[in-house]
Amino acid sequence: MNHFNYQDNIFHCEDVDIREIAKEIGTPFYLYSKATLTHHFKTFDQAFSVPHITCFATKACSNIAILNLFASLGGGADIVSGGELFRALKAGIDPQKIVYSGVGKSRDELRFGLESQILMFNVESQQELLALQDVAAEMGVQAPVSFRVNPDVDPKTHAYISTGLAKNKFGIPIGDALEAYQQAAALANITVQGVSCHIGSQLTDVSPFVESLQKVKNFISTLQHTGIAIKYLDLGGGLGINYEDEEPPVPAQYAQALEAELKDLDCTLILEPGRVIVGNAGILVTKVLYTKQGGKKFTIVDAGMNDLARPSLYGAYHAILPVEDRGQGIETGDVVGPICETGDFLSRDKTMPASQSDDLLAIMSAGAYGFTMSSNYNSRPRVAEVLGDGETFHVIRQRETYEMLIAGEKIP
Ligand code: LLP
Question: Is a pLDDT exceeding 90 seen at residue 222?
Fold first, then answer.
């Protein structure tokens, strides 16, 4: 359920006429619905009845206004960099609800996490463990640790976003993890707190989640037999959404399937959802610049692959809707951006609203991994981000200016 809808044939975000936003701030822009973000967060969080913390995966959508909204709903953050930690803290997220994932945390980043007293580091290698021990010893503190174990489970998703197979770079093979925990337990400045895993993103079936949970559960009982107690079980994120015709489980089904496996485990659950909360709570609004007929119909818009990378990078589908529905009908063709690459498309060989210059289009399901993966390629200023809220809207990130493009550059 989301709050993007037509009112008298004009596409609205909640009760805001999207044409009004475009008139005021220009295009393109990302537009999120506060009511949808809130509804998705609560639906996910309340689906779980066991003690848990919902640590939103910051990488999916990292604007501090949105992180602050989740903080106000009791949410924490899953972070993967010092930059994300900085954002999460600025947004008012309780450090004791922050978990730090990622295969390549630098020593400076480890120090920043320790200084901030985050809940735990999801350590992904023995070398990282030793670096963390070192930094914690220098600071005279204890580092709370969980190992991210790699359960070798096929999440059946796009190869680029599968993370839980043995051939993926993530985590410690579950078969080697006992040794890693024993090593950690013997280190003076490491406190073992949990076990974590994350097998991939945009999963549309619960069975890979259940399969990996079963493997992790067996591993936790092995740990307990060796006297290593676990306080937190972090199951990562990965629940998929509907972009086109997928039928992913809803959060209640996902929670039920996981909780059925958790009965005799005495741990606090940590969840790291990203896409399922923000994906369908955000759109990208773009304007048609020109149309032309080449080998096929091209609709050239003012947003490009630098603004929304998913179609170019993964061949991802994003539905496209007209902001003004004039009954213009549909046509087949490509929606392309101004970037000088053939791979710069938002939609390829798909039906789309028949459009003409100056029409506004809504690129749907763009709230997750949309703005956060955008870049300045072709020296294009990154677009504005806007939060719709009832009858009003707030610019939560201003459009970049040309001056901002070269800030920090210098001719020697
Ligand atoms: N936790 C960890 C450790 C992760 O690596 C990720 C996503 C998540 C949680 C959140 O996963 P989600 O609930 O959003 O599926 N750029 C790609 C997705 C990359 C996902 C990377 N990791 C895309 O646009 O589809």
Answer: yes
